[in-house]
């Protein structure tokens, strides 16, 4: 795997890449980094230029200090600049969690730049907005409201050698053994970089300013695959129901007995479903 940096939207983003061919770009979620795609990059590098970014604020990428730097338009602009900076006009875009949220928004903004869209355990923004109006999903999203508080979330995450990160990763997993001590330490080290904790939490601090509950969403024309670990304790499976109202060409593949960390917990199935979808 090759490590490099690319300048996009006024900042430098670190990325890891492997292989040659059409671009397949991977966007990670919270509280992760490029490493969450370690089981996908070698597979899709067989016939693609597979690239996993560290999103702004994470790991080796730049970490702007102002909270407004983590609004969705900036995150979408990062992806556009990364695709172009890598020498491409189009790609297959793969996103998980926050990376999935960015990918959904990017697909609506720049559909002409996507061959395929693949989303893992992150509902369509309209469905998430609807979910946040229900007591069931509000309870599951309690941490979103905690993260609105200044300073306290950073303290809680950093306390006791980032124990909360380990709890989130292993505690949410159906098979906790999927995260080795080495894996956990990699994520802790990435989050321990100066400014990373606040940057990651600033994504959440911009959710409500972004007007997520009010925005109107049209019908997406980009062929889209959703892969969903059914044992996600943060995002209910019911948030996927009705997605076809917003996506004209949609496939959904559910993975039973699998958590939010779907591409790490069931990498073979995830890779198989992606292969079937892209027709390779």
From TrEMBL:
The keyword Transmembrane does not apply. One of its GO terms (molecular function) is hydrolase activity. Pfam families: Abhydrolase_1 (PF00561). It comes from the Bacteria. InterPro entries: AB_hydrolase_1, AB_hydrolase_fold, Epox_hydrolase-like. Transmembrane segments: none annotated. Residues 23-265 form the AB hydrolase-1 domain. Keywords: Hydrolase. This is Soluble epoxide hydrolase. It comes from Leptolyngbya boryana NIES-2135.
């Amino acid at each position: 795997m090759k490590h490099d940096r690319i300048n996009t939207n006024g900042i430098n983003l670190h990325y890891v890449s492997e292989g040659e061919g059409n671009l397949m770009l991977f966007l990670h979620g919270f509280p992760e980094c490029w490493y969450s795609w370690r089981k996908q990059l070698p597979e899709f590098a067989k016939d693609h230029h597979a690239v996993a970014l560290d999103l702004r604020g994470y790991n080796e990428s730049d970490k702007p200090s102002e909270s407004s730097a983590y609004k969705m338009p900036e995150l979408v602009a990062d992806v556009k600049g990364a695709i172009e900076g890598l020498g491409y006009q189009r790609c297959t875009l793969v996103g998980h969690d926050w990376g999935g949220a960015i990918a959904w928004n990017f697909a609506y903004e720049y559909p002409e730049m996507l061959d395929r869209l693949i989303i893992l355990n992150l509902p369509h923004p309209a469905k998430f907005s609807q979910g946040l109006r229900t007591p069931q999903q509000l309870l599951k999203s309690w941490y979103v409201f905690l993260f609105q508080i200044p300073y306290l979330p950073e303290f809680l995450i950093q306390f006791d050698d980032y124990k909360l990160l380990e709890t989130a990763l292993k505690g949410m997993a159906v098979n906790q053994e999927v995260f080795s001590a080495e894996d956990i330490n990699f994520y802790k080290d990435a989050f321990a970089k100066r400014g990373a904790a606040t940057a990651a939490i600033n994504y959440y601090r911009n959710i409500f300013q972004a007007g997520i509950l009010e925005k109107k969403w049209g019908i997406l024309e980009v062929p889209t695959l959703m892969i969903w670990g059914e044992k996600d304790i943060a995002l209910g499976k019911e948030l996927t129901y009705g997605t076809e109202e917003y996506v004209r060409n949609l496939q959904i593949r559910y993975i039973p007995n699998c958590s939010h960390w779907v591409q790490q917990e069931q990498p073979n199935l995830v890779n198989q479903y992606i292969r079937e979808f892209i027709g390779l």
